[in-house]
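Cont'd.
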Amino acid sequence: MNIKEWIFTTDHKRVGILYLIGSMAAFAIAGVMAMMMRIELSTLGPTITDNPTTYNVWLYSHGAIMILAFQIPALTGFFANFCIPLMIGAKDVAFPRVNALSVWLFYVGVILALLTFFVPDPPDVMWTGYPPYSTITTGNTAFYTFTVLILGFASIIGGVNFLTTVAYMRAPGMGWTKLNIFVWCTLGAFVLQLIFVPVLGTAVTLISLDKYLGTHFFDPTNGGDVLTYQNLFWFYSHPAVYVIFLPFFGVLFEIVATFARNQVFNYKMVVFGGIFGIVALAGVVWVHHLYVSGMADWLRIGMMITTLMISVPVGLMLIGLVGTLYKGSITFETPMLYASGVMFLFLIGGLTGIPLALPSLTIHLARTYYVVGHFHYVMAVAGTFAIFAGVYYWFPKFTGRMYNEFWGKLGFWITFVGTNIVFWTMMDIGVQGMPRRYYDYAQFPQFVSAHQLMTLGSIILGIGFVIAVVNWIVGAIRGPKAGDNPWGSHSLEWTTVSPPPYGNWPSPPSVAENWTPYGYEKR
Amino acid sequence: MRNVKKLAAAAGCLVSASIAFAAANPVTAGSGAPPAIKDPAVEWDHLWREVIIDITIIGVVFALITAWLLWRYRHRPGNETGHAPKLSAAAAVAWVVIPTFVFLADDLYLAAKGWQLWNVYREVPADRLEISLETGMYSFDYTYPNGVRTQNELKVPAGKPVLLRMTSRDTLHNHFIPDFRVKEDSMPGRITYLWFLPKEAGKQHVVSCAAYCGVMHSYMAGKIVVLSPEDYKAWYDQEGAKLNDTKSAAEQTKAMPARKS
């Protein structure tokens, strides 16, 4: 294997795999940060570091890296790159060189994020970077700003690329209602990225201007306003949740349809009700992150209603996913096991979000472990399980080899148990008042045993993820040959050889009039 | 065609049901009688229990359906592909419209309930103790109406609503009192408020910062000490008198050199 060929590749599959490797490295590092925090919190007082700043830097990097360098790039980088051209029957993306540029930028962003651990005075501003602290800290907020800007730019040019690719490069005969659900979901995510990433870029740039060049955007003593930043930040960062949610649900749809050997339940409901609904509502709910930030009361009540309305498109997508099981013929290989797990994790996560839609309940719950537990269930863990499901599912396609089924299933069960121990306990002590982002909790000694239980759970969780990643590495090197279509899927990406060659098909595919990616039963 | 009619009837029922739901839970009460003081903490526990029951029912139903489908339609020999029936146009629309109405009805119900409680949190009773709070890295500095100042310890009388008007001199902070189910940010350049109803004399309640405010964020904590009204008045007058003594003493020392010259 020629390393230069990989670095300078413009092939969408290789770009995708580079995204996967980079994002998994980021996942590993951010995961280690999480373990360090859990160990630190296992006793009252200092445990493994006596410097709160060290803990705050772990916390900052865990959040920022997991979201910006793991979940978003894994979903809109790896899965989108690898699957979309194959699913729509294209030879490559519309702008292959721009695609290569985006993965290079992504690596620059990841390296910048990892430099956090080597620069003196690393940023300790949390992934939200709220001023005034971020503008007066001795930490290097600029690292935060530039990590966000570069990863954001990588994402924007990816978005332009994929919207063009799907609009103009579908195989002959492939209408808009024959696209895989994953393609629709990813399109929705990229539309959100294109609209909202510039707002985040603006917000973090203004912070660095305030800190280093002496402007006063967020400085109230000179006519600025600290709340402006929070509005700008969440105007992007709430849609970012859907940038993660939509593609991971798309991955689940592909897996569930394949392993239930069934058509997607009510395709048009999922696309035009679910995905379109989420894209439409994504930008008008952000104030629910600011329910205790001193926003105007009418805004808090208004966004309570829009936030509750989100349950409609999300509910329709969940009905579509679960409905796909109806009268199916379900087998439980590892990808399907992970996907089934997500259905339950997401259910817990989604429903525990409903109290958080109400400002009057959030006035107690905000900024506690309840919120942390909720968003880990709904986005962090559900998303990561879906990413793992997807990697297992397309593993035979992108490596040509098969992973080990036994270790795959074992890894799933261990992770699933660990996850529930950690995050259920977290929500429980959150309701009782444990605030988040605490290095120490001397004023809440009653939570020591719960913290120890979570530390234990996080170790179990970590073991499960390690088993999965080792399983992939061993499978990619020594696994048995998988064949072109081991799952018997009807989707277009399985019609080429594994791994697909440069150009994907010897001759461009075209699809028949009655073809759909989910046509398992002949009618 | 019959399907469409059935569908329309079902949708009609749902619309009227959700309107009735909303009407039965008016957003603002307006009976005219002077309302008794509602304790937000108690009301919070009520609504929390109600919402938890609501989401538990939805969750259990969804989870059972999912588990049943996963088990019932597992692969069995002779059953190599799925046999999902093709949805008719009416059924496809019904699967959008009916869940939408069910979800919206529940949303509307919760929104009405949430709004009611929100009004309790934001409308402060007129008979109250008003205290101003300035937060800073890393302390809560309270100032009473008579000018008495305390740090990280707020003494309040039982049975009287306490209103905190908050601002900050440096970064964001948050005055979180878990026992009273209330918190709100304080920040430079704006004044925010929260109120709570202390009830039991002799009790202490933890106050903790809930907005990441810097290195020592987790050590920024204090307490609320609830005194009986008599004890509180004694303490308040005594501190006020002390303050006046020091004030007049300070004025005298300031004034003396002026007289000399």
